[in-house]
Amino acid sequence: MTDTIDKAARALSAGLMLFGIVVLGLVETFTGKPFAPAPITNEAGEVTAMPLISPEIRTGFVLAGLVVLGLYAAYRFVAPLPEDRGVSHETMAG
Questions:
Q1: pTM of this prediction?
Q2: Which of 25, 49, 64, 82 has its CA 20 to 30 A from that of 19?
């Protein structure tokens, strides 16, 4: 049971962070300008270009991944360890 939760938590957190950073960053790069996360204005203050994907959305995906990772860490902290994890203990012959 814990192996399934471990894999799911790691996959979900990594997927959310990679989507927010890499995928949406590539979409923003390949669609053209602007490369700045904030709207670009001219001297009169009119907005001349806006990013395709809002920085708040990208940050939300990354933060959601970090929240999942934090919840997973809290779960691992309070979850009891299984009695037999298949680890053998060896001693050195002296």
A1: 0.73
A2: 49
